[in-house]
Fold this sequence. Notes:
A: alpha+beta; B: four-stranded mixed β-sheet
Amino acid sequence: MLTDDSVGIQVVRQLAERLKDCLDITTLQCYAGGISLMEAMSGYEKAIIIDAILTRYGKPGTIYSLTPSDLRQSKNVHSTHDANLGVALELGRMLGLPLPKQVKIWAVEAQDVETFSEALTEQVERAVPSVVGQVLRELRETGPIPGEQP
Amino acid sequence: MKRISIDPITRLEGHGKVEIFLDEQGNVANTYLQVPELRGFEQFCVGRRAEDMPTITDRICGVCPEAHHLAATKALDELFAVEPPPAAKKVRELFYMAFFVTDHTTHFYALGGPDFILGPDAPPQTRNILGVVKKVGLEVGKQVIECRARNHEMIKKLGGRGIHPVAGMPGGWSKSVSEEERKEIEEAARKNLEFALFSLKVFDSLVVSNSAYLDLVLSDVYHHRTYYMGTVDAQNRANFYDGTIRVVDPEGNEFLKYRPSEYTEHIAEHVESWSYLKFPYLRKLGWKGFVDGLESGVYCATPLSRLNVSDSLATARAQQEFDRFYATFGRKKVNGRYQPVHHRLATHWARLIELLYAAERMLELALDPEITSPNVRAIPQKVAGVGVGSVEAPRGTLIHHYTSDEKGIIKTVNLVVGTTNNHAAIAMSIRKVAEKLIHGAGVVEEGVLNRIEMAFRLYDPCMSCATHSLPGAMPLIVNLRDSQGGLLRSFQRGG
């Protein structure tokens, strides 16, 4: 509820509604990262993460399609608390946890992540339907939802 | 020395920053700790129903929702002037101990442990949980993950939902514990106890028995004589769920004891021009600057503090470790209690002793016949309109303070999160290490910067309340600048 920080939640709520009849897909609103995020993915073949991002020169509302290895180059992946996502995934694999073979990330450039509010800022709000569409397209093109309407 | 003014409005780009400024001789002139300011929390809460606060505030922090949930619930007990039945308090505490075990375990193996297990001079790519697992063995990594999994499961059973608990309500808890659940919780507690003892052995063999590391812990670089704060029960033993707030002076004498509702009488806040951060201090002594000593109002609230304010611990094995801890640092008893340990790196050891206490306490509560009582709720009859709830969060004394109108609609909210207590102590720890290790112009090595970061990391600061990066917690950058403010080196967690 830090304004644009909830973009992931908003997208997932809409996806949950569209995917409610797909038993192979779990939608989850997750508020923690690092090891907790890795644990949430355990047991699935594929994981899609949607979240806000802050880049140095980014324009709010811009949508990025990333993988965990992209994040290794970014500044914004360090957790003072447990481990960044890259490390957490590597840990999980090292320990033989059944982690997804594919992890994709949709990140939306945020404008404000420092004010408490349940609403998104305008440009981020406008990106939401686009992200929902892209994720659904991804799920259609690579499985497991053949024939789902965009 | 050239004065460098820092514009306090500078945006931090979603990071916490430590800025170290060197003078013309290349020695440390000033250090600054900055964290992004979160705005509008009170406005966000005003107008909401007070009984929603436990589920609102537990979303502030993805790392310690349980702590906020309980502090909020306890604030509501007061706001609605209702006393929970004894069984409800036990269920709340049981829930909380499961959380403490997970949190302290994760911190040690992922964050604090790497400093010792890999060493402060190890390359940054190895100074993380992967490095720990590679050194100590895959089995340990599996145990950490299992510990988290079993306790998250218990928290879900007790708290009513995964990740964000919902069971806290004024006057009690929304669900009681069945006998079947109690058996599972007992089993989880026993496994926790084994793992806690194992972790202390790891620390012992890799740190206490290693003279190089012990020297690091004992060195003057990480030594500060300040006041210490924690919560204790009626026998002056640490209790994370409930009790009286106790403050001891640098010599170990009791300085203050107060109920959480009295906190504003004893704690004031200092403001610096270079930071949004508030720096709490002891009102009675006043703010004397970022300095140690009996006359300075600076205090800290950490696992080390909680041991320092306790006369003893309430569970048997933790008590043994408590005695061993103080003996290792050569601390004697004066007036029946140990003089404080001031070596801040010892906080990592203190955290493991707390882990052991939490595991033992969890087992005690799981074996308590009252834990399965169906009587876990007292119904509020009125609205008192003000409530303060306090618990010991893993990273310090946490306070939730609400006022409401006569219908129970929130009017004001004030939170003092655990790490806030430590803002001054953190700034001082960073500064001391920087001053002692950085001299003259020239290349500052990785090891030096890591030792500076260790000064911050030992407090396990929860900056997760600030911006969330993808992993869900805020990263920290250490910037080293010359006397003109030009950037010499920039260093961050994980390299």
